[in-house]
Amino acid sequence: MDTTPTVPVPAVPAHATQPGLAPVPAVLHVGQVRVAPPTVLAPMEGLTDATFRTLLRAMGGCGLVVTELVSARELRLGTARARRAARIAEDTRPVAIQLYGADPGTMAESARICEDEGPDIIDINMGCPSKAVTRRGAGAALLRDLDRAAAIVGAVRKAVNRPVTIKMRLGWDATSLTAPELARRCELEGADAVAVHARTREEMYRGSAHWEEIARVKAAVSIPVIGNGDVTSVGSALRMLRVSGADGVMVGRAAVRNPWLLLQISQALAGRPIFRPTLSQQREMLLEHFARVRARCDHPGAVLGRMKRIIGYWIDGVPNAESLRRQVFHARSPDEAVAEVNRFFDQAMREEGTAIRAADGAGTNRCAPCSSFRREGTGERARSDFRRAVVSNEHGKP
Ligand SMILES: Cc1cc2nc3c(=O)[nH]c(=O)nc-3n(C[C@H](O)[C@H](O)[C@H](O)COP(=O)(O)O)c2cc1C
Fold first, then answer.
1. Atom 6 of ligand 1 has which residue's CA nearest to it?
2. CA-CA distance, 263 to 251, in Å (whole number)?
3. At 286, is the secondary structure helix, strand, or coil?
């Protein structure tokens, strides 16, 4: 039996009660692909590789995952990097392969090549702000070249027999918010859904996402619109959905910090209790992620680099996690990084235990996550706690 602490949430999702706003449906249809729940892991180069996508899927609560961006030109040339990035695992379906490029012919050809991998969806990147991508006319450059963008969508649409989606930003800068018009042109060319990161290219990742601008895209099209940008918690997901009227929610950075976030959002949308990981489960999740990275790569330097990248995002909800980040950043080998993680969590759990005993002594009520601490062990015991959590979440996924 799952003894994980939970907190109650309202039976009706908060956003569903707002006058004039339809509730978010439990299923999002992207062409013939069923995305249920309507929660999507955002593509993130260097973070959401096959390892992470598989791990996140195992948690439940994620309706769709997207590969990191893949260069259409490289895929056509057959480079190892592009083929690796476009590889998908059966247990992560439904999954979209994201392509980027500026030439409609090359995009269409690479989309056909992708079909061998059998993705459920082909996604086209129209949001990448990096100069290396935009100076070739791809990624966010398409936000100010709508004719080319439409030609790409039309060519890919004709080339493949599966849904085509677009991931875009709001526009190039604040003076050219082209997303509604771009989305409309994409729909006319046969796109099945769009995801909108509510920032302009000029903003890169600065400032706050403008969720209200997603509403303008939603008003311009009749295909599903997925909202993205700065969703960091259940509360912000519900707020984004309410402000934008989007049909689904896409989460990027915060899902690396908190791999349970999509599950938690899906639980809130379904009006179910929200899963709250214990410290022990957070430790095991992180170690599992590290173990999977090691299993996929033989080069210790590359493994350590990836571990540091992951830990860079791992500070949410873990008390004192900044010190964990510092310690792992100074590690000289993958083994040292794992040892630092174990040291950090051993200490954190000891401190949590002391706090609980002090609170018990003072007759104070314990909070739910702390009270679970007594049931947890470390090492093998904790590992099996983690497995139980994964299994129980899979079963409980909406
Ligand atoms: C490290 C990193 C890599 C990213 N790589 C991609 C990518 O390959 N394709 C893409 O469409 N967006 C990419 N993005 C953008 C994210 O998908 C997402 O739109 C953005 O991070 C905003 O969402 P968030 O606030 O939930 O993180 C990347 C973002 C980050 C931080």
1. 44
2. 11
3. helix
Helix (H/G/I), strand (E/B), else coil: 30: strand
Q: What is the pLDDT of residues 89-103, one digit of tens each?
A: 999 999 999 999 999
Q: Which atom of ligand 1 is nearest to the CA of 250?
A: 26
What pLDDT shows up at residue 353?
Answer: 82
Which residue's C-alpha comes closest to atom 21 of ligand 1? 252
Q: Which residues 6+ apart lie within 8 Å of 14 measured at CB?
A: 238, 242
Q: How far is the CA of 9 from the centre of ligand 1 (A)?
A: 29
Confidence of residue 362 (pLDDT cuts 50, 70, 90): low
ω into 37 cis (within 30 of 0): yes
Q: What is the pTM of this model?
A: 0.85
Domains of the chain, CATH where assigned? 6-275 (3.20.20.70), 279-396 (no CATH)
Per the CB < 8 A criterion, the answer to whether 280 and 338 are in contact is no
Measured CA to CA, the distance from residue 284 to residue 18 in angstroms comes to 39
Provide the pLDDT for residue 254: 95
Binned at pLDDT 50, 70 and 90, residue 154 comes out as very high
d(CA 183, CA 221): 7
Alpha carbon distances (Å) from 254 to 95, 204, 233, 247, 329: 19, 17, 8, 20, 20
Question: What single DSSP character describes residue 24?
Answer: P
